[in-house]
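Collaborator request, handled under Task 6.
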Amino acid sequence: MNGSKAIMFHFTITSPSHVLSNKNRSDVSAILCIEATLTIWHDQQLFVRIEGLTTLEFYKSLIEWIKLDHKNKLQAFTYFSIDHDESEGPILSLVPYYDKVSMQSIWSEQEQPLILKQKEVLEAFISLEQDLQKEIERTFTIDLKSFIKHIPYRIHESITD
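Structure tokens returned to the collaborator:
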């Protein structure tokens, strides 16, 4: 598990290690078949368990979000998978307001969104991205940087404020 004391992530890559290699880094079907289970806990209570998470797509969404300018204000993060019906809502979203963030998921175990501090969320998600990178590279013995431009992901424009 990783993250801050209040937010904890646990992920398990469920795809076999032979499915992906540096040789097939531009093979979109191989990229999209890599799956994991991601569990998010808040204050030791289950927030959401996402099974069949399209791992590399989620990873790319995270790094693209982390690249945004968060200096003055945390930017919104909305994760939709390519194979997910957008009308159901985002698989995972972070909606900033004032100095807080509302974390929501369509598959949340809790009825209300989590309300968290922006700094805590940014630090936890940066840590998640770093840990995901290490685990993906370890599991598949790949250099993830060479895959990034080939990983498809959905850009979802959202309006905040």
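The cover message to the collaborator said: "The two ends are 33 Å apart (CA to CA). The chain has one domain: 7-150. Please let us know whether this matches your experimental observations."
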